[in-house]
Sequence to fold (167 residues):
Amino acid sequence: MTTLTTAPGTWLVVQEPFATPDATTLRRAYYAEVAGRYWKRAVTVAEIDQGMLDFPADDLAPPSGRFLVGRLDGVPLSCGGVRLIDPVTAELTRVYVDPRARGTGGGAALLAALEAAGRSLGAERVRLDTRSDLVEARALYARHGYREIPAYNSGPYAEHWFEKPLI
Fold:
């Protein structure tokens, strides 16, 4: 087993199975935030449970996907998934940084690691979709070289689509 040591205040983002306790807690927090913002109210535990069933993470595992968890000073505070949607296109999903850690570089660290994971899957570009109300996410993507593109899917909550070349 390899032990990685980082300086205080440093993000460490690594691949982790989506069903570990830390990954599951982060995926639940992601769902609670995006659903709560969409519905403009707090989300119940039962609604989170149903959302986890309705939007499983099974495709975020090898060989065609990855799930990553980011830790700040060892505390799990971010997550995201990447999956191939065709042989040269990866898609980001469930990109989340805990609100307590926003502004600390966690989003940038997570995107860099997700993009590297996409490259390791053979992707030449990465895409994602998001909603209009997720203004912080849209700003993060724009800051990191993602450009808006025409719709590439018909997701029920997709309102903005982004792409970035990986090569």
Summary: The beta strands are 11-15, 65-72, 75-86, 89-97, 125-130, 147-149, 160-165. The chain has four helices and seven strands.
